Amino acid sequence: MISKSLFGNRLKEKRKFLGLTQAQAAEKAGIERETWGKYERGVFMPSGDVLLSFLNMGIDVSSLFAAEKEIRPSENSEISKEESELLGYYREASDLGRAVILSAARGAEKKAASSTDKVSNG
């Protein structure tokens, strides 16, 4: 089980990713702004009904409870900031979203290879 503070930090990241203030997020979830703030600070954990409202807002609830830590680049890391950001979006995406991300990446690679071939053969 994860700590309340880790849950709260993840919830805050999801809210900011959606571009919402605490008040806007609380309204969408059908709760008071103060309650939302207590979730983000790790004072309280939401009930099942509130978690369902998070899901309806587009928050991947399972990622709020995931035991694994987010990958963060470091000085000696082989993963760049952009790669870490992309991985974060991929992990938070729905199945359809993941398929779109993979399709876009594969399409970009094919287009880049095609452009290289044209320059080489030109």
TrEMBL record:
Residues 11-64 form the HTH cro/C1-type domain. Coiled coil: none annotated. SUPFAM superfamilies: lambda repressor-like DNA-binding domains (SSF47413). InterPro entries: Cro/C1-type_HTH, Lambda_DNA-bd_dom_sf. It comes from the Bacteria. This is Helix-turn-helix domain-containing protein. It comes from Uruburuella testudinis.
